[in-house]
Amino acid sequence: MLELLLFLAVAQALFISPRKGESVKLGHETASFGKQQPYDVRGLIVRPFDEFLCSETGNYSHFKDNIALATRGNCSFFQKAWLAAEAGAKALIIGNNASTRIERKMIRLDDFKKDAPDVQIPVVWISGKDYEFIVEQMKNYTIQAFLNGEGDVAVKKPMFHLIPPLVLILVWMTIIGMYFCRKLVMRYISRQHRMSAMNATPTIPYRPVEEESEEDAMILNSRCVICMEDFVEGEEVSCKKKKCGAYFALQLKALPCRHGFHASCIDPWLAEHSERCPICNQSLLQYNPGREYEMEVKSPQEGRT
């Protein structure tokens, strides 16, 4: 009989026929029991008489120094490997009898890992289609195989163990997203309230506070605490600080607490920073923004009479 070389290597097995010079690659997967990588085995492929390699009373003397080939079924993978190792086989190739692919969901080569210490030979798995191909070739050829761990095929494993942490991460991210969305909405609502309060704050001329009219005064302070510029009596005042703008006439704004500021100083404060008075920390939102402040605005001439 002609000799046929079969290589299980380099991501897939390599088959060479001297007669045709053809090469075929076959994938395999190494079991989690038995000899692990790296391994490098060479020998003839032989089959058991019962095909399944399950009988403990069977004659497997022809396995010695060769590579055993068996099909799936009738007994555990570990029992097949144990019988092959006891008979002196260098390695065991198990073929799937129900599939053309190497599928983790169909095979569990690691089910007997706890019983594995007695098995010291490599055990690999090939698809049913590849198994039938080798069996068919063995009818006409003597097959010699070179087997090593480089031929392992990456098999997709179930991802079910990732579902709980992924769900937990998704829930956590949802909670964080809702928190930040609520924070943005509340910030927007707060800014709208501050803008309403700012727009409702009247713009008035400044009049110095006299002792006898302090209760009726619209502005109690004589200086803008934001730009630290003194107010000037009259309908218009000049703010010379950069926070207000350079040298242009401005009106004063009186907050409900009767503290006054340059309009261009207090408006950015109320719109972007806080709704509270920079002097007394009293909130404008405590007042009804829609209500008109009942303040009598008098001209400087009327104030002097």
From TrEMBL:
Swiss-Prot/TrEMBL keywords: Membrane, Metal-binding, Transmembrane, Transmembrane helix, Zinc, Zinc-finger
Residue ranges of the TM segments: 162-181
Subcellular location(s) of the protein: Membrane
One Pfam entry name: PA
Keyword Electron transport part of the UniProt annotation: no
Biological processes, Gene Ontology terms: ubiquitin-dependent protein catabolic process
GO cellular component: membrane; nucleus
Domain RING-type: 224-281
Top-level taxon: Eukaryota
Cited InterPro entries: PA_dom_sf, PA_domain, RING_finger_E3_ligase, Znf_RING, Znf_RING/FYVE/PHD
Molecular function, one GO term: ubiquitin protein ligase activity
Name assigned to this protein: RING-type domain-containing protein
Organism annotation: Lotharella globosa
Lineage of source species: Eukaryota, Sar, Rhizaria, Cercozoa, Chlorarachniophyceae
